[in-house]
Prior knowledge:
- This protein is an alpha/beta fold.
- Helices cover 26% and strands 14% of the residues.
- The strands form two sheets. It has a six-stranded mixed β-sheet, sandwiched between helices. It has a four-stranded mixed β-sheet with strand order 1-10-9-8, covered by helices on one side.
- Helix 9 (367-382) runs antiparallel to helix 11 (430-447).
- The longest helix has 18 residues, at 430-447.
- The protein is globular, with a radius of gyration of 23 Å.
Amino acid sequence: MAAAGPRPAKNGGRGGRRGAPxxxxxxxxxxARPPARAPRRDSQARADDGPRRTGKQGGAAQGGKxGGAAQGGKxxGAAQGGKxGGAAxxxxxxxxxxxxxxxxAAQKRRAATRSPxxxxxxxxxxxRPGGGPAGRPPAQRxxxxxxxxxxxxxxxxxxxxxxxxxxxxxxxxxxxxPNVGKSTLLNAALGHPLAIVSPTPQTTRDAILGVVxxxxxxxxxxxxxxxxxxxxxxxxxxNQAAREAARSADVVVFVAEAPDPARLPKxxxxxxxxxxLAPHPGDLTLLAxxxxxxxxxxxxxxVDRVRDKGLLLPLLDAFSKLREFAAIVPISALRDDGxxxxxxxxxxxxxxxxxxxxxxxxxxxxxxxxxxEYVREQILRxxxxxxPHASAVQIERYVEPTGEGALHIDATIHVxxxxxxxxxxxxxxxxxxxxxxxxxxxxxxxVGRQVNLKLWVRVTPEWRESLQRLEELGYNKGEAS
Length: 481
């Protein structure tokens, strides 16, 4: 049986309407598809996973491993390896079955044969939702994915709870400037690459909840968008989501980053005396606006950047004078160094309460939300300049069969200008094909089953400035999680 994905939300999450235009007649193995839809507009480009047969078998998908560009010029291969399974009638449910005991043990054995971390010993818990410890074979991982999963291939072991201690449960907001490592910290705490990560600032657009059970405490970590000076309506919505998450949290983890060695003053590199390193001006502004209702844990991330850790002591001292912190913890989230201590400090601050999530639950977001995020993650990695910021992904169709067939997902990538669309599609549709293939592999790892992903690109002018468009894309619903 397939591994379980995250607990689905009842409302189905972002994605809204079904039935995006595709212009494709139902094919073999697609009995559960909605009726044929109107032809797609000129501003759309379909991504498929290779050439389709023509003639009497025009709608039939090819089985086995497929390759090559799709017919139609602007079509590209998005997603599908292996044999395709037919969709069962009445699809749309997003629940996936949890692996049986034998399959769970087999997943652990497979993980142990290819993961250096797994060979060190058992993790102390079974597979978590989202594909389990088996993950994706190394040959299918991209360089970016390897960096993201350096030490999170195995779920973080659950800390044993002392029965004599009262249970605690709290919402913990991760706040800070863009690109300081909040999403990497969330993934390291979960032991699973749930949130998307990229070098592009403002990668996180929504508050994403991840649940960690640490000793007697249930810690609901909220990864928030980086607080910044907004230039668009989308930026203002992102800031609002981050501030709302901080206001509703029981504990706030304020994340700052150690200075980049390339930007250190020459005197510091050469060990000369002079003024010590000082907090970033943006950190000063955010701390002043943070309020004092909830206890704050200060985390200085990316300390692995600085070889001489003594240089960081004056910086930590400067932060400690800005306000009273419940704890100050230097960490390297990317290397999973110090993350456990952050959880220790946060667990002590959570209020006494019964747990609201099962021990194996990972998030409250539906899998279709992460399907859109993982497509956008590949856009961030494949493109530069304005394209990542001007791109949004909307799930138009999500059909999950009741049996062992493939999960069918249709997604539209919205951009603001025709030139951005051209960049995303690429020469011979190769760019869109690569984006779809890598996104499919990520989604398959999450849901634990085969995925058939199709992508279109549509020009939606000024969508970042339209509140109506933002609501349609799921960015302006006033939700903190």
